[in-house]
């Protein structure tokens, strides 16, 4: 198992070595594993048979930063609409690769709807939901044959809730005969890993290239996920997809996913992630993308959007001005990123500080690329602004928020616009 390298620079994670898998659509070639950055994925929750609604949600997820979007393909009606969804996305200029999620009848759908098989960039196969015995082997082989024919990579995704019953029963039986049997939970974890690796090896025997396979072993408890992926990483070099299945809703889902994935990512394990949040009624599906990005960015593994540093507030900050400004600036920065990524290379690594009082305000603002220290309760009603560590101006009055946003806009254009010009010149 590859772990955090204590002899390297502080905070530098030594990645678990894996093969590199390409997931492509048109000119877009997304790499998973190897030296590629850890990717953020998501999944739609629309009825895939509704091509318009699904294409719209895929677009929203892609614009939020999802680098691969998975869609359910569970019925003939859904499979029939996949090419239309792809066409809608192409017309909208959204080239994000689509992954088809198959359970139970994937072998039939991929065979009966070749246009669906071609329009997808990647297939997700769950070996535990493909029947039993020879029927299971035949169904699996049929799906792998389609993947080979269309030259599509496959994620073999084993799930705690749908583990191969025959495999588990056999391993439980073998365990019971040991002089010192392991507990049932440990056997189940081992069965997940064995299922994933053995199915990957079978796929290679059937002709699927080894660099077209990604593995995942999803469970719903933090410690189980950590144990399973540590074991999986120690036994193979396939790229690994991380995710806590059925993580939950709101803060519980975010905390559980962060706790599990952060430990593994810090050990260099994981090449692509998905945060499986249950949306609140009417909630925004893109939240899971944002959470995935924030996990990677706060760990220093990737940069997606400028980070806003803001204090939590205390008795010194009875005014809500700094909270409102921090929220306003953070929303503004994220909203600008779809266009800023092209206009201003490097802007995603920018740090902005919005602080609420004099205690840590000036210091944090100096450390950020650009920062403002707002007045706390009883302090002089003035807000010094710091740019690249230097105090440049002091804002006063009722329009501090508007004036600071203009300063941020000008700073981005000046600093990162020149980076783009230098790149173009070279």
UniProtKB/TrEMBL annotation:
Annotated GO biological process: isopentenyl diphosphate biosynthetic process, methylerythritol 4-phosphate pathway; terpenoid biosynthetic process
UniProt EC number: 1.17.7.3
GO function terms (MF aspect): 4 iron, 4 sulfur cluster binding; 4-hydroxy-3-methylbut-2-en-1-yl diphosphate synthase activity (ferredoxin); 4-hydroxy-3-methylbut-2-enyl-diphosphate synthase activity (flavodoxin); iron ion binding
Function: Converts 2C-methyl-D-erythritol 2,4-cyclodiphosphate (ME-2,4cPP) into 1-hydroxy-2-methyl-2-(E)-butenyl 4-diphosphate.
The keyword Iron appears for this protein: yes
Family: Belongs to the IspG family.
Record flagged with keyword Transmembrane: no
Organism expressing this protein natively: Zwartia hollandica
Membrane-spanning ranges: none
Residues where [4Fe-4S] cluster binds: 311, 314, 357, 364
Alphabetical list of HAMAP family matching this protein: IspG (MF_00159)
Annotated ranges, domain IspG TIM-barrel: 29-292
Keyword annotations of the record: 4Fe-4S, Iron, Iron-sulfur, Isoprene biosynthesis, Metal-binding, Oxidoreductase
Required co-factors: [4Fe-4S] cluster
Pfam families: GcpE, GcpE_C
Biological pathway: Isoprenoid biosynthesis; isopentenyl diphosphate biosynthesis via DXP pathway; isopentenyl diphosphate from 1-deoxy-D-xylulose 5-phosphate: step 5/6
SUPFAM superfamilies referenced in this protein's UniProt entry, alphabetically: Nitrite and sulphite reductase 4Fe-4S domain-like
Reactions catalysed according to its record: (2E)-4-hydroxy-3-methylbut-2-enyl diphosphate + oxidized [flavodoxin] + H2O + 2 H(+) = 2-C-methyl-D-erythritol 2,4-cyclic diphosphate + reduced [flavodoxin]
Protein name from the UniProt record: 4-hydroxy-3-methylbut-2-en-1-yl diphosphate synthase (flavodoxin)
Cofactor note: Binds 1 [4Fe-4S] cluster.
Domain IspG C-terminal: 308-409
